[in-house]
Design a protein that fits this description.
heterodimer; A: about 300 residues; alpha+beta; Double Stranded RNA Binding Domain; 3 domains; three-stranded antiparallel β-sheet; about 10% strand; extended; B: about 220 residues; Ribosomal Protein L9, domain 1; Methane Monooxygenase Hydroxylase, Chain G, domain 1; four-stranded mixed β-sheet; 9 strands; zinc ion binding (chain A); GINS_Psf3_sf (chain A); B box-type domain-containing protein (chain A); nucleus (chain A)
Chain lengths: ~300, ~220
């Protein structure tokens, strides 16, 4: 929370940083909290769907960019460079016969994936089995000693009441590969998976009363801050900027943009005031209107009647 | 993250235009009365003191010649530049708002100033030198802190308002962030106690100060 001119601004970093997952072990049985458990997406069975473009090949995975099922030939020819996932094979594959509908279940008789319309028209009176991929919304009990990952805001409260025992999450652990990379060269490590690394790190270090973690974070962010400061004051090349920004946490992105903006503003001001304004007093009305439109940042000067 | 802290360069230029410089008019008029004061009767070839905004607009109508201020001579600036290079842990005392005044004068009346191009490049050199000194001292200060030391007061003297404005957001946000990481009391379900004491003073003079708990960054004359 920031108090500024007697108004209070919520620090969004603080709130979003509390989503960091912390592995917890339940010490007691928790009733009706089953919605906390995410069901892993399992490939229950293999769907045999022929690819539309290459009729001899089965669909083996899903292209994430285009949201379509692809066969092995498609992967190399039509979807070159896209990323694929073979896990959630059952989700969101569009039915061949009815392109507006997703495949939602499997026909047991024909061993094919079917959409709603297929069920009604093409596979009448066959039996189906549902593809169960969504998060379970049943409220089952969580048994004692189950290990699940909870967000910080929940883990903190449960830990204070000693209902769970918590463990430091992976990116902050001592010997983990991520921390080792950070120790080696903090500037080059990409924070793309941990956009709130600093804020959640401070909360975690207070939860575990781990002073070393705090010092570690301080050192890293000191170096990154100096790097950002130096780069932001000189860089003009937009592609380099986006490349650097891609590796930063949310806070660092905003910081970079602020610094960059103030330096660029100064440069622009300096350049624009060096320009000698021509014909300023010969055509008082028209050129004034034009100049006001074209440079909205420049304030108008008072004009004495000529 | 606080937004819109500080001024835009145009606003600072506006504030700087109140400074008084001498002109030599070539027309005759009785004294002008403005809210900010009365600017004496204009007699051809008699120097008169007016604010900068008035001088620039008269110049654009070709009604006067501007006498450059005393500090705008090549010798004085060169002396300051040499001094700047010698002193590594402070900044040289330069006149208030020299950046704004110099850019305005150099753009509106280059013919009235001796050695215009030399002065232009010299001022740029001075600015670059000061900025890099600031960068280096920040880097040295942060890197020299040992692990347990909190980030404490930093003081910069003789920094002009335009330069302060340029680095204000970087210093304040960055160091505030580092301070938050290292502060002891991090149980942030009520984090207002950490950040309530941010005082911010907009500077019309040469000082800008911001205190974050016990940290202070002081820019003073």
């Amino acid at each position: 929370m920031i108090s500024y001119n007697n108004q209070i601004y919520l620090d969004i970093d603080d709130i979003l940083a509390q989503e960091q997952k912390i592995p917890c072990v339940f010490l007691y049985k928790a009733y009706k909290l089953g919605s906390l458990i995410e069901k892993k997406k399992e490939i229950k069975y293999k769907l045999e769907i022929k690819c539309t473009h290459h009729p001899n090949y089965d669909i083996t995975s899903k292209c994430i960019n285009c949201n379509q099922g692809v066969c092995s030939v498609c992967m190399s020819e039509l979807h070159n460079g896209h990323s694929f996932s073979s896990e959630s094979l059952n989700l969101e594959i569009i039915c061949i016969h009815h392109p507006n509908y997703d495949i939602t279940s499997k026909c047991i008789n024909c061993n094919l994936g079917v959409c709603l319309v297929c069920k009604l028209k093409l596979h009448k009176r066959h039996s189906f089995s549902e593809l169960n991929n969504n998060m379970s919304s049943e409220d089952t009990d969580i048994e004692k000693d189950t290990k699940i990952k909870l967000p910080y805001w929940l883990a903190y409260v449960l830990a204070k009441k000693s209902l769970v025992s918590v463990e430091i999450p992976n990116p902050y652990k001592d010997e983990h590969s991520f921390t080792n990379r950070l120790l080696a060269d903090p500037k080059e490590v990409s924070m793309i998976h941990y956009p709130y690394y600093a804020s959640s790190g401070t909360k975690i270090s207070s939860l575990f009363s781990d002073h070393n973690l705090k010092l570690f974070l301080l050192n890293i962010f000191k170096k990154r801050y100096l790097y950002i400061y130096n780069q932001a004051s000189f860089l003009k090349d937009n592609s380099m900027i986006t490349k650097i920004l891609g590796n930063m946490t949310q806070f660092e992105k905003r910081l970079f943009q602020e610094i960059h903006k103030s330096f660029v503003d100064f440069e622009n001001w300096k350049i624009s005031s060096d320009k000698i304004e021509k014909n300023y007093y010969l055509y008082p009305i028209e050129s004034n209107i034009n100049s006001a439109k074209s440079s909205p940042n420049k304030r108008k000067r008072l004009i004495f009647a000529n | 993250m606080e937004e819109n802290i500080g001024l835009t360069p145009n606003q600072i230029e506006f504030l700087a235009e109140d400074t008084i410089i001498t002109i030599v008019p070539n027309f005759k008029m009785e004294s002008l009365i403005f809210l900010s004061g009365e600017y004496g009767p204009f007699i051809p070839s008699f120097p008169v003191k007016v604010p900068l905004w008035l001088a620039v607009s008269l110049k654009k109508k070709k009604k006067c010649n501007i006498v450059p201020p005393e500090w705008m001579s090549f010798d004085y600036l060169e002396q300051q530049y040499i001094q700047e290079n010698r002193v590594t842990d402070g900044f040289v005392d330069l006149p208030d708002n020299f950046i704004e005044i110099s850019t305005m004068l150099l753009s509106s009346c280059p013919e009235d100033i001796n050695d215009v191009n030399k002065i232009r490049s010299l001022i740029e050199d001075i600015l670059n030198r000061r900025q890099s000194k600031l960068n280096n001292s920040l880097m040295n200060h942060l890197q020299s802190l040992k692990d347990n030391e909190p980030i404490s007061t930093m003081e910069f003297k003789n920094f002009s308002m335009m330069e302060i404005n340029r680095v204000r957001s970087s210093f304040v946000s960055g160091i505030n962030h580092l301070y938050k990481i290292q502060s002891l009391d991090n149980n942030d379900n009520n984090s207002n106690n950490n950040n309530n004491n941010i005082n911010r003073t907009q500077s019309n003079s040469q000082t800008a100060s911001r205190s974050i708990y016990s940290n202070t960054i002081n820019f003073s004359k």
